Amino acid sequence: MRRVTRWAKWMAIAVALSGAAFSQAKQDVDLIVSGGIVVTMDGARAILRDGSVAVKGDAIVSVGPRAEVEARYKGAQTIDARGRLVLPGFINGHTHVPMTLFRGLHDDVTLNDWLYKYIFPAEAKNVNEEFVRWGTRLAAAEQIRSGVTTFADMYYFEDAVAEETKAAGMRGVLGETFIDFPAPDNKTNAEMLSYTEKFLKRWQGDALIHAAPAPHSIYTCSKKTIQDAAALARKYHAPLLMHVSEMKKEWEDSEKANGMSPVQYLEKIGVLGPDLVAAHCIFVDEADRKLLAERQVGCVHNPSSNMMIASGVSPVPEMRAAGVAVGLGTDGPAGSNNDLDLMEEIDLAAKLAKITKMDPLALNAKAVVEMATIDGARALHMEKEIGSLEAGKKADLILISLDAPNAVPMYDIYAQIAYSLKGSDVETVMIGGRVVMRERKLLTIDEPAVLEKAREYGKSVKASLGME
Amino acid sequence: MRRVTRWAKWMAIAVALSGAAFSQAKQDVDLIVSGGIVVTMDGARAILRDGSVAVKGDAIVSVGPRAEVEARYKGAQTIDARGRLVLPGFINGHTHVPMTLFRGLHDDVTLNDWLYKYIFPAEAKNVNEEFVRWGTRLAAAEQIRSGVTTFADMYYFEDAVAEETKAAGMRGVLGETFIDFPAPDNKTNAEMLSYTEKFLKRWQGDALIHAAPAPHSIYTCSKKTIQDAAALARKYHAPLLMHVSEMKKEWEDSEKANGMSPVQYLEKIGVLGPDLVAAHCIFVDEADRKLLAERQVGCVHNPSSNMMIASGVSPVPEMRAAGVAVGLGTDGPAGSNNDLDLMEEIDLAAKLAKITKMDPLALNAKAVVEMATIDGARALHMEKEIGSLEAGKKADLILISLDAPNAVPMYDIYAQIAYSLKGSDVETVMIGGRVVMRERKLLTIDEPAVLEKAREYGKSVKASLGME
Predict the structure, then answer these.
(1) Within a domain: residue A77?
(2) pTM reported for the whole predicted model
(3) A454 touching B (Cβ < 8 Å)
(4) Any domain includes A117
(5) Which residues of A305-317 are buried (b: 16+ CB within 10 A; e: fewer)?
(6) Do A360 and B310 touch (CB under 8 A)?
């Protein structure tokens, strides 16, 4: 007995020493998000009931049970996540952010009237670089407030969009528009090409900004315009953003002119590939879906927009079944939504699929949360960088409060995110390790100034169109 | 000239004196909501850009331009509405409030599985009067937070729902359920009748509570059960709440068993009338719609629920065209929504109609705001009491902040309400002259206690069903 006791004593001393050594060897990190319900969206879709995330620089160094993470890492700062959900930041896969300044300018009209009677004249009279800057600031504020950390944009003066996105601390895949008529920024295709090449060069290697060419669509761009844009994307290893098969007329015209669907036409002219981000994909048949999957095209579903404009319903369950990466987008906040709240798109994607298929099992809560996170990352070809909480990925994460009547009780975490929680429940937002909103307070944007300026733009846009 | 000058002088003195007299004669009121953008929803759909609402007791005494109202009335209190929208409170025309405590308990399953595998067992094991009280408190908190001032409910222990609704200061049309199997409260039809008669008697003449019998549906109630409930409603001049033509099977079974649609069957058995509030009305053909309009039945559209359960799409534009009063509802917060945010239903009603009809003009922003206010009041047969801001109506009103990124700029007020503003933008809520939420703080509900209790119920419900 005596020897056993002595042995136990030695062991206790050894354990204490090694514990001390271990504790001294804790790695320093910048920040630990501590003690939340961590919804990782990793390959196993692990959910940690009492988890922590350690962050160093702009990346995640560890995700795991709180006790384990906090035994190994010492954070210079801590964010208390107890009683909250911790999720990868939401990914808004398709929008036109400067159009926030046209929010609600003539809804409830046909797309044709909206474009030709209202939006094109409004853009011709109002859109310049300054407009784009303020619109981007407003959109950044709105998106951060509802938990969006990355967005994919298509508009004009995209270099200014990039500067403002970076200033707001957001991650952006930002597409300069190619279109076969004079745009607010570039009047000719040659100017578009030259502007965009400069734009792509400028942002190469940037931690937050991925610059991209964005040929608008097959009905507004010639084959040459699209191919030029694609060649530029490939030269600079940039993504390529495009509206694809959004409108019935687009599909009908393609069948008539090319004898094939828009997707098949894009394949034929060499554009389908693992860099393409195709927004909408409503009119895509089985052969199209197979092709999109084979070519590793990313697709972005925009339920609010498709409903509001009455364009049609994308066959999302079939696309997922075919292996296509399908993300979610708000589309532009004018005429087709009219907000940038991706949590509404999560809810709507599920509900729209269910009613369309007349099947409540058509698309479930987990699937739509995937679309807003890891599948959204896949759709933007950024799944190595973002979309889940895993060591090595960018530290883009959000804390959602569960301290509201709509948040309790909670039986199923994915259902709560999809059907009960709101953008306004998002409490804290981190992008690339930088906290951009803390307890609902924006830290990178002068919100009162942005709201004031937006109201002024409201007046000047009205005046430019002869509205009261 | 001299006489004219003298005359003018006398007149000026007379005007000054009468002005002073007038100012001294200002009528005392309890409260003035001052200087907001007042969206009255009155017959002319007047919008006052700088308007005020004077309130005395539980009623509105005046609505008009600020200068006029404030020249005539002196408020003991003032609510500053500058820079905010002032609207009639939203009307949630169909829900099951105690089911908040089952929020998110098994979604994404068929209605049949949901009912028989999950909800009926969960109700049998958990629903009692205490459960219903806490569920009602939670639902009141959630509804007030998103601007709902009146709701129509169908559940069990409805007398307890009434007590809690009144305690929260909300207005309710509260239906005790009749169903042909033993319910959590009443085990036989005789007990249902006796309970409900007592319930109706107790609340007669109450300022906030309208008690009602609620035969569940034609597929769960015999002809006699429905007729008994209707007779009781008519005896006490109470409304009658019922699910009508929600499911395809309900319609098919009625055609088979009765040789006619559910609506025609209800006409035949003497139930259609100006006291009936019919939830859903999805499978209603032209003849049905004509009959609903002629009999002045109120209908309630529940877009989230219809999408989530995949029941079908109510022909709302056709119902409105036929002259039917169509309101909006969230339906229950378990399995079919899962929240009680009526602003989402406003947005969704428009978008669902557009995509269903493949017509962006199918249902516009103004129409859906009507459905949430004045038409919601008509659907509940309460249009003389609520639904618009007019002298003589109950002082049920909400202030919506415009101080958020999603709120600016504002080109069209109805579009902003329908498509951009959120439940979380609702700042202050008044019901019957009583402020129940001020600047997002609930004044009639102990919110932390309610959230805590809801979490406890979450645990006990899970345990009762053998869930982890």
Answers:
(1) no
(2) 0.94
(3) yes
(4) yes
(5) bbbbbbbbbbbbb
(6) yes
* A352 near B CB under 8 A: yes
Q: Would residue B56 count as lying in a domain?
A: no
A409 contacts on B by Cβ (under 8 Å): 101, 103-104, 454-455, 457-459, 461
The Cα A225–Cα A222 span in angstroms is 5
* pLDDT averaged per 10 residues, chain A (length 468): 54 51 78 98 98 98 98 98 98 98 88 84 95 98 98 98 98 97 94 98 98 97 98 98 96 98 98 98 98 98 96 98 98 92 98 97 97 98 98 98 98 97 98 98 98 98 89
Chain A residues with beta carbon closer than 8 angstroms to that of B309: 354, 360
Of A104, A107, A139, nearest to B410 by CB-CB distance is: A104
B63 located within any domain: no
* Total domain count, chain A: 1
- Which residues from chain B sit within 8 angstroms of residue A358, using beta carbons? 310, 312
Mutate to test the interface with A, among B113, B307, B465 (most CBs of A within 10 A): B307
* CB-CB under 8 Å, B338 with A412: no
Residue B214 is part of a domain; what is its CATH number? 3.20.20.140
**Rounded to an integer, what distance in angstroms lies between the CA atom of residue A397 and that of residue A395?**
6
Q: What single DSSP character describes residue B142? A: H
Under DSSP, the state recorded for B420 is I
Lookup result for tokens 């996540």: A81
A141 Cβ partners below 8 Å, 6+ apart?
A: A168, A442, A445, A447, A450, B405
Q: Which helix (H) or strand (E) holds B342?
A: helix B342-357
Q: Please indicate whether, in this complex, the C-beta atoms of B408 and A458 are within 8 angstroms of each other.
A: yes
Range of the domain at A356: 90-379
Is B341 close to A406, i.e. CB distance below 8 A? yes
Q: Tell me how crowded residue A205 is: count the other CB atoms within 10 A of its CB.
A: 5
Tokens 């932390």, residue located: B448
Residue B96 CB contacts under 8 Å (≥ 6 apart), including other chains = B153, B154, B155, B331, B332, B333, B334
Does the CA dihedral A59-A65-A69-A72 come out positive or negative? negative
Cα separations in angstroms, A190 against A139, A174, A178, A197, A269: 30, 20, 10, 11, 20
